[in-house]
Amino acid sequence: MSFLKPVHGQRVHLDDHADPALRSALKLPLALPGQRIGLFGGSFDPPHAGHVMVSLMALRRLQLDQVWWLVTPGNPLKHREPGDLGRRIAAARAIVAGHPGIRITAVEATLGTRYTADTLSLLSQRLAGVKLVWIMGADNLRQFHRWRDWRRIAGLMPIAVYDRPGSTFRGPAAPAAVALARWRIDEQDATLLPDLEAPAWTFLHGPRVALSSTALRAARHKENVPS
Ligand SMILES: Nc1ncnc2c1ncn2[C@@H]1O[C@H](COP(=O)(O)OP(=O)(O)OP(=O)(O)O)[C@@H](O)[C@H]1O
Ligand SMILES: O=C(O)c1ccc[n+]([C@@H]2O[C@H](COP(=O)([O-])O)[C@@H](O)[C@H]2O)c1
């Protein structure tokens, strides 16, 4: 197991003994022009069934070829530093259990980015012709107006927001949702979303999972299990 602590603004370089899973996650996956790829950023500390549910629903409802998890070196709005990147990637790979539609990546560590606007801007340039969609849970829509350059993000690629217990009704009333209201499409038309020019977004309802990494960390702490 490799232990990694990426520094904001610096790309990660691995030595020859690095874990092959980590080496693979640091590579930018291949995508062909015309393919439909969902980008699902998160701390995944730890990953859980809620993340898998959102990915599976996005694959189906948006008719995506793949969902790429972007396991972040650290959420810029969270004060708590997440656990080791190598461990989070290993846990993410274990929970998706080889699902062919989900790809675990650490491309922000490769690109040296931490803010989503920078990551998505670079990915849109490098993957020109690929139909990219940013995916996030409804709790993040509530905070989206606090993200750096959030309006630029909304202009870079369509966005799919997935329902989450606790954020169901407040999600669509969020300041960013109000500001972007005229670009929202009905979720019944969600299959069209990857084909649309940004800004465009939708709010997807479906099966909900009441799990959070915070609750899982607290439970582990109580049981004294190392994370
Ligand atoms: N149960 C869930 N239902 C819907 N979306 C979720 C769920 N859990 C996480 N997400 C979404 O997945 C993405 C990554 O979330 P993250 O890794 O922070 O998990 P989390 O459970 O929210 O963690 P934490 O409790 O530490 O904040 C975010 O866009 C978040 O909104
Ligand atoms: O760019 C920002 O300002 C920003 C602020 C908050 C969160 N994000 C991103 O949102 C994604 C979800 O974060 P999290 O911690 O809720 O898993 C993850 O990719 C973060 O890097 C990005």
UniProtKB/TrEMBL annotation:
<comment type="similarity">
    <text>Belongs to the NadD family.</text>
</comment>
<dbReference type="Pfam" id="PF01467">
    <property type="entry name" value="CTP_transf_like"/>
</dbReference>
<protein>
    <recommendedName>
        <fullName>Probable nicotinate-nucleotide adenylyltransferase</fullName>
        <ecNumber>2.7.7.18</ecNumber>
    </recommendedName>
</protein>
<comment type="pathway">
    <text>Cofactor biosynthesis; NAD(+) biosynthesis; deamido-NAD(+) from nicotinate D-ribonucleotide: step 1/1.</text>
</comment>
<comment type="function">
    <text>Catalyzes the reversible adenylation of nicotinate mononucleotide (NaMN) to nicotinic acid adenine dinucleotide (NaAD).</text>
</comment>
<feature type="domain" description="Cytidyltransferase-like">
    <location>
        <begin position="39"/>
        <end position="218"/>
    </location>
</feature>
<keyword id="KW-0520">NAD</keyword>
<dbReference type="InterPro" id="IPR004821">
    <property type="entry name" value="Cyt_trans-like"/>
</dbReference>
<keyword id="KW-0548">Nucleotidyltransferase</keyword>
<dbReference type="InterPro" id="IPR005248">
    <property type="entry name" value="NadD/NMNAT"/>
</dbReference>
<keyword id="KW-0808">Transferase</keyword>
<keyword id="KW-0547">Nucleotide-binding</keyword>
<dbReference type="GO" id="GO:0004515">
    <property type="term" value="F:nicotinate-nucleotide adenylyltransferase activity"/>
</dbReference>
<keyword id="KW-0067">ATP-binding</keyword>
<dbReference type="InterPro" id="IPR014729">
    <property type="entry name" value="Rossmann-like_a/b/a_fold"/>
</dbReference>
<keyword id="KW-0662">Pyridine nucleotide biosynthesis</keyword>
